[in-house]
Design a protein that fits this description.
126 residues, 3-stranded mixed beta sheet, 5 helices
Length: 126
């Protein structure tokens, strides 16, 4: 009986250690976006973020901390509103979907194609 308890305790501790997430490296694309970087770094609810921009669009992908995921829509709207105040000439998209952040970090080759592909991916209903 004692052996089962020890084995269960070992499996539980291994599972907890392996579930720890490391933050994704933040990428600063241009010097113009220092205001956005500073704003996003000051937010307590954001774990990691990535910014991608072209002439007409600005995509901000964020990863929220665990308990902040319950307020995902509210936080997206708040961040989008603050960024739109500074970038009125661009179409701002803010996404807390992990798939977008994953795709942005996966390959950083052609930014234009990647941005249009991700904007289409965000419009899909899943």
């Amino acid at each position: 009986m004692r052996h089962f308890f020890l084995i269960g305790l070992m499996i539980l501790s291994i599972g907890l250690v392996s579930c720890q997430q490391q933050p994704i490296q933040m990428q600063r694309v241009t010097n113009e976006q220092s205001e956005i970087n500073q704003f996003l770094q000051e937010q307590d609810d954001i774990h990691a973020f990535y910014i991608l921009e072209n002439n007409t669009d600005l995509l901000v992908a964020i990863q929220l901390k665990s308990l902040s995921r319950f307020r995902k829509d509210t936080l997206e709207k708040k961040i989008k509103k603050n960024i739109e105040n500074d970038y009125t000439d661009k179409s701002v998209t803010v996404s807390a979907d992990y798939k977008v952040l994953y795709e942005l970090n996966k390959k950083k080759t052609d930014k234009e194609k990647q941005l249009s592909k991700l904007l289409k991916l965000l419009k899909e209903e899943t």
